[in-house]
Each structure stands twice: as C-alpha cells, then as structure tokens.
Amino acid sequence: MSKKILVVSTSLRSKSNSEALADAFIKGARESGNSVEKITLKDKRIAFCTGCLACQELQKCVIADDAVEIVRKMHDAETIIFATPIYYYEMSGQMKVLLDRSNPLYPSDYAFRDIYLLTTAAEDESYVPEKAISGLKGWINCFSNASFAGSVFAGGVNNMGEIEGHVALSEAYELGKSIF
Questions:
Q1: Of 16, 51, 56, 128, which is least surrounded by CB within 10 A?
Q2: Strands 114-121, 35-40: parallel, antiparallel or unpaired by DSSP?
Q3: Which residue segment(s) compose the domain that 95 sits in?
Q4: CA distance linking residue 35 with residue 57, whole number of Å
Q5: How far is residue 163 CA from its own chain's centroid?
Q6: Is 1's pLDDT higher than 80?
Q7: Which helix (H) or strand (E) element contains residue 101?
Q8: Which of 15, 150, 139 lies closest to 85 in space, CA to CA?
Q9: Average model confidence (pLDDT) for the chain?
C-alpha cells in the first residue's frame, strides 16, 4: 500500500546539497509506489509565529502567507521528510520557523505518523546533526501519533554539488525505497 509522502526542502540555496539528498529520497520513495510531493521553502514567504494561539481554535494560522498551505499539506501527509542544511550545528532557521508555524496541527486530526530528517553540513563528524535531530524530536513529541523514523546525514559537503558521489545519496535513496 502506497503512502502519501511530503518532502519539505528547507534550504534557501538553489541546487543545494540537502535538496539533492531530498531528491535521492524522493526517487526511492516513488520507485516503491508512493505518492510524493516536494515543497521547497526557497522563495516562500513564511513569517514568524506571533504566539497569538488563535490557531488552536481556528485550526488555521491567522497570518496570511505560504506557511498556511504548507501546514495544510503537512496535515494531510502520512509521512513527512524534512531536508535541511546544518547551520551552527542546528536545523536551518527557516525550518524552525515552519515548525513553529505548524502549531495549528496540534489540536487537529493530522495524518502523519513517521517523520524523517535528511541533513547536510560542511562538518563531517557524526555528532553534527544531533541538535537538529533533537529539535525535530521535540516538535514530534507534541504529536502523540507521530514518531521520529530515521535520518540520513551527509557530512563534508558545503559548496553546491559537493554531495555528488557521497554515500548519503544512496542511503537516502534506500530509505525512500523502504517506505511503502
């Protein structure tokens, strides 16, 4: 049975390494018969959450920007994959802002169950993505039906295209292929 998968690429760079990782995942997921949609935050307008909590009653954010549609797609997806570059040992700021803006999902009957994280960084040590994973797990902990399902890290990549030939591309592809 195929899954409805949403991939959120959070890099603001064109042809970024984390987007290449996301594309490898997508290729594997589609080959397994899944329905996959990719959203790229590049060129999206996403404002900061103001903490008004109107979304808890409305189940929709009152700020009219691109986050409203992205959060709706997150609500309907069975599986969500976030792809982010690691900046200062943490997820990208734009990913964190999107997670904050997804507050309308909290009281809703969301469909997502499995959440994955794909990360890239100039640094190559295995501990580099730990804080980004921890931050995402903190968000996931607010959703009792969801769980952190796995991650792939590509270290040692900074400039555009440096990920070419990296073992993490095949790991992301295989992870995508394993979802069905």
A1: 51
A2: unpaired
A3: 4-177
A4: 31
A5: 18
A6: no
A7: helix 93-101
A8: 15
A9: 97
